[in-house]
Amino acid sequence: xxxxxxxxxxxxxxxxxxxxxxxxxxxxxxxxxxxxxxxxxxxxxxxxxxxxxxxxxxxxxxxxxxxxxxxxxxxxxxxxxxxxxxxxxxxxxxxxxxxxxxxxxxxxxxxxxxxxxxxxxxxxxxxxxxxxxxxxxxxxxxxxxxxxxxxxxxxxxxxxxx
Length: 162
What we know:
- There is one protein chain.
- The chain has 162 residues and is mainly alpha-helical.
- 70% of the residues lie in helices and 0% in strands.
- The longest helix is centred in the last third of the chain and has 25 residues, at 130-154.
């Protein structure tokens, strides 16, 4: 890893937060929105590993809570867990495979679903039904986030060669 990768990842995070707070609400469908921060977090963790990913998830969640004005700790907790769980997909020998193929979209779906369920369950607007929580608070936002992550794979200028 080059020494310039960490500041670059943080810059991508700041751009994702600005887009998440200003642009993403405009594409909301029935209160379901994609999570751009999760896409950046998953890419970062798949590039650098689980321990760093857990710390990065904590940091991204803290800054997101501070920037969004939401309940302090909800995004921090859900992003920390998301970073930790994403670390299980990390493999030093498969970084290109995991970040440049459609496996990335599948990992984003899984992690975004987990993150959305935790975030919704901890927020003040948590649904009373577990089914509604999993479906509308987890699977739908996870699928929307995975859909938004497709361009990262489709337009990646470096072709993956196995």
